[in-house]
Amino acid sequence: MQKYKHLFFDLDHTLWDFETNCKDSLSKIYAEQQLGELLSTSFEVFFKQYLYHNELLWSKYNAGKIKADELKWKRMYFALLDFKIGNENLAKELSSHFLDLLPTRDKLFPYTVEILTYLKQKNYQLHLITNGFKEVQHNKLKYSNLTHFFTHIITSEESNSVKPNAAIFEYALKTANAALKESIMLGDNLDADISGAINAGMDSVFVNHINATTLLQPTYTVTHLKQLKQIF
Predict the structure, then answer these.
(1) I want to staple 202 with a disulfide (CB 3.0 to 4.6 A). Which of 61, 129, 150, 197 is the partner?
(2) CA–CA gap between residue 124 and residue 220 (Å, rounded)
(3) Predicted model pTM
(4) How far apart are CA 216 and CA 164, in angstroms?
């Protein structure tokens, strides 16, 4: 008899390869807009700074310190500012283009489709809990051909809460009509996914693609999606 019935997945950095898709999108924009000439630097240097600010601002967003609209353009603004370009209008224009292009990228972590197919065939109910923006996340799923795997897609915008707050997990359980004891969270982010699951009293799988160390105690840890077969 299966211990779990409802599997709640994170999307970015867990199934959908954010960094690769982000790099692909930004490199295209960087070339089209001739940003190398404007910033007097290489794309690789700019991309490193963008990732730095993206991670920092996502942490602030997850902690409730900034709003979604700020996150969308300020990560670009601060990256440009590192190269002495303090142009808010340009940052907003580039961010808008980026958010149109990013969801059309379809690079997934190895074995994503295979493991989701396997879990569906075993009659697990699959759902998503994501702090990502509703329209963007739905388009990522669409272009990656993943939408059909998930019964419910819970976003922070819809739930009025963000991981790691217990409220978004409670909202997800209610939406999926799922009991806590038969549910488990699967994600890569120690703060949002694992701490969030612990806050909600939910079991968790730490999808540790990068072999990070932690003092947290997830219920399970895997370093490759294929290893989920050993749990489910």
Answers:
(1) 197
(2) 17
(3) 0.92
(4) 14
Burial degree of 65 (CB within 10 A; 0-12, 13-18, 19+) = exposed
Spatial contact of 185 and 205, defined as CB atoms under 8 Å apart: yes
Q: Give the C-alpha separation, 61 to 53, whole Å.
A: 12
SS3 65: coil
What integer is the mean pLDDT of 84-100? Answer: 95
pLDDT at 15 (0 to 100):
98
**pLDDT confidence band for 132 (50 / 70 / 90):** confident
Residue 37 has φ and ψ, to the nearest 5°, of -70, -40
CA distance 82 to 79: 5
Query: pLDDT tens digits, residue range 177-231?
Result: 999 999 999 999 999 999 999 999 999 999 999 999 999 999 999 999 999 999 9
Helix (H) / strand (E) element for 62: namely helix 43-62
Beta pairing partners, 125 = 6
pLDDT at 63: 85
Per-state percent for the chain, helix, strand, coil, to nearest 5: 55, 15, 30
The two three-digit tokens of residue 191, written as one number:
């703060």
DSSP 8-61: EE--BTTTB-HHHHHHHHHHHHHHHTTHHHHHTS-HHHHHHHHHHHHHHHHHHH
